[in-house]
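Researcher: Sequence of 3-hydroxyisobutyryl-CoA hydrolase follows. Predict its structure.
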Amino acid sequence: MNHEDPVLLHTEGRVRHLTLNRPRALNALNHAMVLRMAEALDAAEQDPGVTAVLLTGAGERGLCAGGDIRAVRDDAVAGGRASLDFWRDEYRLNARIARFPKPYIALMDGIVMGGGVGVSAHGSVRIVTERSRIAMPETGIGFVPDVGGTYLLGTAPGELGTHLALTGEAIGAADALLCGLADHFVPAQGLAALVADLGACTTPEAVTATAGRHARPAPGGVLAGHRAWIDSCYAADTVEEIIDRLTGHEAPAAKETAAIILAKAPTSLKVTLESVRRARRLGGLEAVLDQEYRVSTTAFAGPDLVEGVRAQIVDKDRDPRWNPAELSRVTPADVARHFAPLGDRELGLGPAPEAG
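Model: Prediction complete. Tokens:
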């Protein structure tokens, strides 16, 4: 095992370990990591000595902070297409994880955002800790939730997923469990014992039972107490009406949330709302990933992703200049073009898109 590899592989007992290994970059995903993970899953599936796969992140700060968005921005500025190739393989990996026939255990400890959600929350055994901070923060960088994020958020109870998609809010363990993004809470100090016990498991059923045996009630949680205003306000048909409902609601948290949303990219907000609503109707993950690839391809060619990453990551002035800068200037046609079929460039995981 080369400790400089971006994904470390080793086996303990009958569990194949995959460790994302870019700790200084919070294990941000790049194309090489995605391809290595896909190869590792293929090998693990075919190996009769492997009962389960376990995903972890190197370092103390988190599993994965997402994709390497600085590289994506550089690619967009240069007029390249490497990011589209990366997303194609990344989204295929997300679908592969969801359909993996052996238990796929993800330790969602620390920061888990964007692409990190894609390689963990589609797994079959998802563990969170008191250190977990989980988010799909794409609207803050002029992008739209992807990696199957709109599928996951679209299936969350009530309008919780819409709230998380538009705000990009980071949530802890209890709220991740509530939203269906995780399965078990295990205190961080108990992870080593969990991993050791998993290594002794010889059947998929034993893996599931072992994870459940280590689980504890998750402390805290915020969203359950906000369900009334979240479900009411986000049931509106448009982002503008959602903002109006939040602003006019008596709950202080609702008014604060309106201000948070208004700081995000207007085009991203409208496309994100439409993406989540469409994802609910599409039903299957593969069809949603196809849709996300269309949306990502269009967003990659627009001005807001480059500007959002500049403001948040490159210059860090936190003052993005969105184009257009106001919700009222984002037309239905602007939104619709993000969902247009790509012809021979389709991802092609699900059924062919219907015309119109």
